[in-house]
Amino acid sequence: MAEAERVLVPVDGSEPSEQAVTLAASLFPGVTLVLLQVINPAETGYSIDATIPTFPEGWYDDAVERAEQTLERLAATVDAETEQTTAVGKAASVTVEHAEQNNIDHIVMGSHGRQGVSRILLGSVAESVMRRAPVPVTVAR
Questions:
Q1: What torsion do the CA atoms of 27, 28, 32, 34 make, to the nearest 10 degrees?
Q2: What is the pLDDT of residues 79-137, one digit of tens each?
């Protein structure tokens, strides 16, 4: 693998994303792992809380808190320097933008491995990132 200094690892709390953190640390010892959790407001669904005027703000605060807890937990699992960040938007777009804007040398990410109809309906974040990323992408599955 080419020399890398900053490796982006987008995470979502799933087992594949946890495996990606471990893989990134083993493939790229001595680098900074940039752990990114994307919060997608479109995935909130509907709730009775939606009728309360403060719902969006309360939901966002809760989502950020959960994301930060996930990032801290994952950072503690590897012997590597980490940066932890959250962002709002669609996972694939935010991941590519983060790589473009933050001197990222490589992306290591997990894949849920969806196939068939679920992949057509849900899309593949990993595939979209692979097609659009400005740097090499390694997918853990």
A1: -30
A2: 999 999 999 999 999 999 999 999 999 999 998 766 655 544 445 888 899 999 999 99
Residues 6+ apart with CB under 8 A from 38: 10, 12, 86, 87, 88, 89, 90, 91, 94, 95
Q: Rounded to the nearest 5°, which phi and psi values hold at 48?
A: -60, -30
CATH of domain 6-140: 3.40.50.620
2 is written with which tokens? 């080419």
The confidence band for 43, taking pLDDT boundaries of 50, 70 and 90, is low
Q: Are 87 and 117 in contact (CB under 8 A)?
A: no
Q: Where are the domains of the chain?
A: 6-140
Contact 125, 38 (CB under 8 A): no
Mean pLDDT of 64-75: 95
Q: Which of 13, 6, 3 lies closest to 108 in space, CA to CA? A: 6
The residues near 62 (Cβ < 8 Å, ≥ 6 apart) are: none
- As a whole-number percent, the residues of the chain with pLDDT over 90 amount to 65
